[in-house]
């Protein structure tokens, strides 16, 4: 059979389609961000294009480890935390308070009864009252609207001062040359008993004082609205809860930490420790948790719903811890101690990440974070307030986007390789005064000897007669409800 002839129109169509495909070109549009491909300033380097495919970078981990090691070393090179001192007090600063709405304004009280308002940015005193109290100023707090300052002291008086609305009222060369402005109290309440602490409510026009008892006051009354007593001869510190303003936390000389509820006008719960607590602070972001500064050289973090064991025991100080204050972020807190140092702890870290000390700095009686969590203010027995950076190697000033990216990259690398021995050793190393170094070594020896004695006693005793108590429960005597 003869083959059927091909249709000419089909052959010509396929040929034309082949010719069109041969002439067709695929075009891809390139979309680029001008910010990523141009320099921000003439001093910057030209950005380079990189392919981040792991197959093309077999030595990526080794290079990143070297970068992390260099970043940790550079942190030590540029670690200069001390910024300046606020001089002016003629006696030891005993208490401090930060302004709730202004980053640069703090108030301090000293042992000679003087109150001062400080401009931290310009490092100068803008207002003072030299005879606010007779004797020690034991407590300073500010109202949450930032309009009033309340103080209390050993003389048994509570005084209210008006705060400046704006620091611009204290600017200008004539004001600076004239010195701090004298301020007088606008209201005062005198009692026959001294006070040891004061704190303002987070919600209404109330404040609470610590002294012979826990007393709740109102702006418009000269007598306390409520009075709480629970076995302690005197109350050393008191704090309102930031999330539940009706709850009050106090520490007493009977080694107790007590919770009070304003709504029921009754005590709620009480915890008795082995040693007395000097100060206490609520975590502003996790308002169930609080941290206390103890005489046994440690700090303890508790959950108020479960006081039978501590959430964390914060060690490293070698003398009594006098002050504790949380960062506004709730991730860290600062402590001041009789060992002449201040330390910064993570909220759930057993050891401090930073320790600050000075050659002339004496026993630290108070320490506070600033409102932006970037700086720490400490007050010590040498009559000075000192300003420190919360991050010792952090550079101050305006940073470009490239600098911020480089810092974030370095932080990620350090966090990724923080378990490596060399990086961990360099990151944890701190230069300590000889006295603190010797005291810490002696404390370690005593701690190991105590553990060894307990282990020997447990091995040579009947099973179960010497229980193994965890560190988080060891320092608790009892809980009372």
Question: Could you describe the 3D structure shown?
Answer:
The model has no long low-confidence stretch (mean pLDDT 89). By secondary structure, this protein is of the alpha+beta class. Helix 3 (60-77) packs parallel to helix 6 (421-428). The longest helix has 26 residues, at 434-459. The protein is 20% helix and 33% strand. The strands form seven sheets. Strands 2-3-4-5-9 form a five-stranded mixed β-sheet. The chain has a five-stranded antiparallel β-sheet with strand order 15-16-17-18-30. The chain has helices at 8-23, 34-37, 60-77, 173-178, 401-416, 421-428, 434-459, 471-474, and strands at 82-87, 93-98, 105-110, 115-119, 124-129, 137-142, 148-153, 157-162, 181-182, 187-190, 197-200, 206-210, 214-218, 226-228, 235-240, 247-252, 256-261, 266-273, 277-282, 289-294, 299-303, 312-314, 321-326, 332-337, 342-346, 352-356, 364-369, 375-380, 384-389, 476-480. It contains eight helices and 30 strands.
Give a short synopsis of this structure.
This protein is an alpha+beta fold and 481 residues long. It contains 8 helices and 30 strands. Helix 3 crosses helix 5 and helix 3 packs parallel to helix 6.
The total count of strands amounts to 30
Biggest sheet features: 5 strands, mixed
Question: Could you name the ranges where pLDDT drops below 50 across 5 or more consecutive residues?
Answer: none
Shape: globular
What is the residue-mean pLDDT, rounded to a whole number? 89
**Estimated share of beta-strand residues:** 25-35%
Helix content range of the residues, please? 10-25%
Rounded radius of gyration (Å): 31 Å
Secondary-structure-based class equals alpha+beta
Terminal CA distance reads: 111 Å
Q: Describe the oligomeric state of these chains in a short phrase.
A: single chain
Count of DSSP helices?
8
Within the largest sheet, what's the order of strands? 2-3-4-5-9
